[in-house]
Amino acid sequence: MKTEKSDLALRSDQILNDLVGWRRDFHRFPELSFQEKRTSEKVGEILESFHTFEIEKNIGGYGIIATVSRGEGPVIGIRADMDALPVTETTDAPWASQHPGVMHACGHDAHMAILLGIARLLAEDTKAGRFHGTMKLIFQPAEESCDAAGKTGAMKMLESGKLDGLDAVLSLHMCPWRKSGGIQWNDGPSMANNDEFHLKIQGSGGHAGYPQHVKDPIWMATYVLQALYSLNGRKVNPLDVGTISVGQVHAGEANNVIPSTVDMKGTIRSYKDDVRDELYKEIHQVANIVTALGGEYSLRIHRGEPSLINDPVINRIIKEAACGLNMYEEPFGMGSEDFSHFTRKIPGAMFFLGCALEKERSLHQSDFDIDERSLPIGVRVLLESAYLLLKRGGVHSI
């Protein structure tokens, strides 16, 4: 495969116009989690035009799996997510969102375009007989949100059984803090466990001028908040990663009435599962402060995405495929990513693809945009990585 692979960067560059066109189309018509009907139809239409893949639709919602096999060999998956966010776009780009209040503010439009670019080159290579094994291109719905049962698109696609037998799985994420031409990688835990809590403090309200006659839940909440924030620096080993943040505190309707309840909601982030469990235990202990102060409470913790764990062997393959690019070794931060469900079951890795514009944009912001010159780089690195895995017999043969 040396000849074919040596020109992969050139071939990726040659389809830049297609990549940009696909990405901008998805960007104009974003759809929220589990609502990606138009997006899925567009992806399916483009895949069918290559006349190469066995295409399975409506997997785990509007998900698509496109499979091509050429003889014996490993089964390698490459995944892209499809959904957008409930964000009102503030860019003035000609391809800005046409759906008010919905925007591709996390780069999933680019992820899909890159995977379609891979499909185009893979179709050419299939017809030319340039690889052996099986490739599955996974277009996943609902990365950003879960359904009523608490399941994201990754969970539902895995539960479908359609991805059983994968030997390895690859993915990327747009990285607006690295310039085009660079990638960020990390072995082991690289994005956070993502859990949410809801603490309801119950007191007894009354007239604000007679606080001696009430059990003030706001007063109780002040002690709870201090204790919660102290957990970040005193209950977690400084060498570990773990944090609790309170995002909502709601109480009362009038300035002269002490309310009966306070609702407090927040997030719990960690990299290691033992730290995750320790933070759960500590939050329960903190909530007991309410009882000591004469109130009552209820506490619910929703266990969300697990931490993203990148396989070191696959990362070595990715770095080989990314030869000549600027490479940065660093965890991806305290965000979460439901690709973690894949890597908990299948050897896999995600890297962050540099796409920064001159004015840096942040993920999930209303002015998010990318340097589209990064798109062919994503095609090259992911497809090269998959080819290396196929050539070497999969992860367990390396």
Automatic annotation (TrEMBL):
Domain of life from the UniProt record: Bacteria
GO biological process, one term: diaminopimelate biosynthetic process
A GO MF term: N-acetyldiaminopimelate deacetylase activity
Residue ranges occupied by any Peptidase M20 dimerisation domain in the UniProt entry: 196-288
Gene3D superfamilies named among the record's database cross-references: 3.30.70.360, Zn peptidases
Cofactor remark: The Mn(2+) ion enhances activity.
UniProt entry keywords in alphabetical sequence: Hydrolase, Manganese, Metal-binding
Name of the protein in question: Amidohydrolase
Organism: Halobacillus litoralis
Higher taxonomy: Bacteria, Bacillati, Bacillota, Bacilli, Bacillales
